[in-house]
């Protein structure tokens, strides 16, 4: 089958939508091809809580945060640690361009399309304790009013409007299996038409083929996302040298369509795919008690206060505190020889610090509901948090530490926790709470974070004893690794054109979003500062759309 269009966009996720928005603004005709049905329009972004990394924004200034492009770039480059001559050649330049965007046009770009932010800025990935190392020096996480679905709406609306003008054609249930290359240039895609599916969003769909298709255009844009749902690929690229062995079991933080196939297809066609050994995992995964996709895990987005113990009850060393340094913590946890770790919290900590990642877990933001938003002051009253505490298989509540540890031991195949060791850690930590100063670095970090008033008000409890019954009952959470983002991907120029392994550009082939490592094949390098993925899709989708609109005949 032949369909006339200027550009074929593979993937109807955020990056594909943004690129299509830009292309149609320039009057270009686009065919969007996606293996899933139309219920999945917007891809992963729909599931996101919609947090966006912005620099020196009006929201930050209102809250007295002194941020700047220079500080953000220094944080970004220190976190990224781009250290590969060839693979990071474009990624490094994308990093600078992206920080410029986040400190400049990004907010206006989405505001013009109706997206609004809460006047609250969160602080996450606070770093490893050095000014020159990984981490956000200041809060930069901006919350979209309407969360991920609103981010999707922002670009879906003009794209659907362009479709009614005949500029966009959607080809759902069309799975691309091959790029059509002629005379060294990408001129189209080929693949399988999959049987119709009525599955709701995020639910895996049938892969039964009912026919073949071929579509041709002047150029092809790959916007097919990463590989987080494909554990075989994750394991194949797992960086054992840096992180230690991969866990035997992992939870899955993305829908099944995040399968990484297009990365392999692009590589087979001659595109350069780089840095796939850089992935962004979360250590705080809990099994979703009401799963949508196979192995569905939800991230506990913790405040900095929980006591973090490894599987045997040893406290994690400084500066590996909750919400400080994801990959450094993962490296440590992999060295313990066990696949899980534990948070021990008080109920007061749950009330202020127990947040869950995802639009479905944040109905106040997603539904733009001000009354529900007030419940953030007491998170245990929020329905999704309550439901997790009541139904989640990884959560235990108990009045006494001994009962709690007994329950924790009963939850794992082997009773790995020695009560005396856990009690020693808890009591020693509790002794440090008596004064407003002390030698416990986690408590110092908590006090420092509370110097930022919004976090003090809604996010971080005043330091208190874990064994203080007034803050009870005690809560333990078993944590496992959750796959999420692919930081590497298809290598592109600053104009989103795919590069070949010899460094030359690939005519007619472009890439954006997670498939392109959020720009250039790995804009984040080794570490992310968070809220940078949706923004990375917006930025790289915008660049790809504008470049194509300008360059095509
Ligand atoms: C629960 C959750 C919470 C998140 N929270 C945040 C957040 O708050 N802030 C943030 O910055 N980021 C967040 N993210 C990450 C962010 O949402 C994703 O990185 C981003 O949406 C990826 O968009 P994309 O367009 O690159 O790819 P995707 O959304 O994965 O879309 C790719 C599309 O391509 C299609 N496709 C793939 N292969 C083929 C093929 N061979 N043929 C046809 N179609 C194909 C897929 O079906 C899919 O529809 C979150 C992600 C999740 C899952």
Topology diagram in text:
Blueprint: E1 7-10, H1 14-25, E2 30-33, E3 51-53, H2 58-62, H3 69-80, H4 89-103, H5 106-111, E4 117-122, E5 141-144, H6 147-164, E6 168-171, E7 174-182, E8 185-194, E9 209-216, E10 219-222, H7 231-237, H8 240-243, E11 251-252, H9 261-268, E12 273-274, E13 279-287, E14 297-301, E15 307-310, H10 326-334, E16 340-346, H11 347-353, E17 355-356, H12 363-366, H13 370-373, H14 383-391, E18 395-398, H15 401-411, H16 419-431, H17 441-450, H18 453-458, E19 474-486, E20 489-490, E21 497-499, E22 505-511, H19 532-551
Parallel strand pairs: 1-2, 1-10, 2-6, 10-22, 11-19
Antiparallel strand pairs: 3-5, 4-5, 7-8, 8-9, 12-20, 13-14, 13-19, 14-17, 15-16, 16-19, 18-19, 21-22
């Amino acid at each position: 089958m032949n369909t006339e269009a200027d550009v074929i966009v593979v993937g109807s996720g955020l990056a594909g939508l943004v690129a299509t928005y830009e292309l149609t603004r320039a009057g270009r005709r686009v065919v969007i091809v996606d293996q899933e049905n139309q219920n999945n329009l917007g891809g992963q972004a729909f599931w996101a809580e919609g947090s966006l990394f912005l620099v020196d924004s009006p929201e930050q200034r209102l809250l007295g945060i002194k941020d700047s492009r220079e500080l953000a770039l220094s944080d970004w480059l220190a976190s990224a640690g781009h250290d590969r001559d060839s693979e990071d050649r474009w990624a490094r330049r994308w990093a600078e361009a992206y920080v410029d965007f986040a400190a400049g046009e990004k907010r206006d770009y989405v505001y013009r399309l109706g997206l609004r932010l809460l006047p609250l800025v969160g602080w996450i990935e606070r770093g490893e304790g050095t000014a020159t190392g990984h981490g956000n020096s200041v809060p930069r996480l901006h919350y979209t009013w309407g969360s991920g679905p609103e981010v999707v709406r922002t670009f879906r609306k003009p794209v659907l409007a362009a479709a009614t003008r005949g500029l966009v054609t959607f080809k759902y249930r069309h799975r691309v299996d091959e790029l059509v290359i002629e005379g060294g240039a990408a001129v189209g895609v080929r693949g399988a038409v999959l049987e119709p599916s009525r599955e709701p969003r995020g639910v895996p769909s049938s892969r039964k083929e009912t026919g073949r298709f071929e579509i041709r255009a002047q150029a092809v844009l790959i916007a097919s996302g990463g590989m987080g749902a494909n554990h075989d690929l994750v394991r194949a690229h797992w960086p054992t040298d840096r992180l230690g062995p991969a866990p035997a079991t992992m939870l899955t933080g993305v829908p099944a369509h995040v399968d990484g196939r297009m990365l392999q297809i692009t590589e087979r066609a001659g595109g350069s795919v780089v840095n796939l050994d850089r992935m962004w995992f979360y250590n705080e995964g809990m099994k979703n008690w009401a799963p949508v996709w196979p192995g569905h895990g939800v991230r506990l987005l913790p405040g900095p206060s929980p006591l973090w113990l490894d599987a045997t009850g040893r406290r994690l060393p400084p500066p590996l505190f909750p919400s400080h340094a994801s990959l450094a913590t993962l490296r440590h946890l992999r060295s313990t020889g066990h696949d899980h770790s534990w948070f021990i919290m008080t109920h007061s900590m749950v009330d202020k610090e127990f947040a869950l990642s995802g639009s479905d877990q944040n109905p106040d933001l997603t539904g733009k509901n001000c009354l529900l938003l007030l419940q953030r002051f007491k998170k245990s009253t929020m329905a999704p948090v309550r439901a997790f505490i009541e139904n989640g298989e990884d959560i235990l509540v108990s009045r006494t530490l001994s009962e709690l540890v007994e329950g924790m031991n009963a939850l794992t195949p082997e009773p790995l926790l020695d009560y005396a060791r856990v009690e020693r850690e808890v009591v020693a930590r509790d002794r440090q709470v008596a004064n407003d100063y002390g030698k416990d670095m986690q408590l110092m970090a908590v006090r420092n974070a509370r110097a930022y008033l919004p976090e003090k008000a809604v996010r971080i409890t005043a330091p208190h004893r874990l064994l203080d019954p007034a803050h009870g009952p005690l809560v333990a959470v078993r944590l496992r690794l959750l796959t999420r983002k692919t930081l590497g991907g298809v290598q592109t120029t600053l104009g989103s054109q795919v590069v070949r392994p010899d460094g030359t550009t690939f005519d007619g082939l472009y890439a954006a979003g997670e498939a392109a490592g959020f720009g250039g094949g790995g804009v984040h390098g080794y570490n992310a500062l968070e809220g940078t993925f949706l923004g990375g899709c917006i930025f790289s989708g915008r660049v790809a759309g504008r470049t194509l609109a300008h360059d095509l005949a």
